[in-house]
Amino acid sequence: MSGPFVTIEQLTAQAFSPFGDVVEMEGRDYSPINQGRAERYDALAMVDCEGSGQHPQISLIHSRQYDLPQTVTFLERHPFGSQAFLPISVTPFLVVVANPGNELDETSLRGFLTNGMQGINYHRNTWHHVILTPYGDVTFIVVDRSDPGSNCVEHHYAAEDQPIIDASGIIDD
Hints:
This protein is mainly β. The protein has one helix at about 15, and strands at about 5-10, 20-25, 30-35, 40, 55-65, 70, 75, 85, 95-100, 110-115, 120, 125-130, 140-145, 155, 165. It has one domain: Jelly Rolls (Sandwich), CATH 2.60.120. Strand 3 (about 30-35) and strand 4 form a beta hairpin.
């Protein structure tokens, strides 16, 4: 492994804002519903969906545990819509992103660790790695644009240029 390192930081709404939204209840306004027995947190992220005949869809993805260290072999972006990942278990996961744009700005590559209860919503055109689940398998509800085949652009790294995800001090052995 010889590429640059991607260090991991805690996921916060402010730090992640150039790349998307953090979907979480902590610190957010809510409305009491169901005679005060529940709290409703509205508009935590917006679904962005462009294209004739396309619509938002809800899917499930089961991600198997990944061992670290990992290298970033490729990044992808979705030019016609946002993409949200909402975990249905309380298991932290890693997100690696770079600034939105038609061209990849490799200097903007950043990594984030969720607290296990946070979801993320990538903004349209945000470069990102596949979700990494070093703490165990995680199933996600995914909200994105239908017809993903036409909504995915990939950037593949040459082996010698692959960034290394540095999770030292983050992931327990």
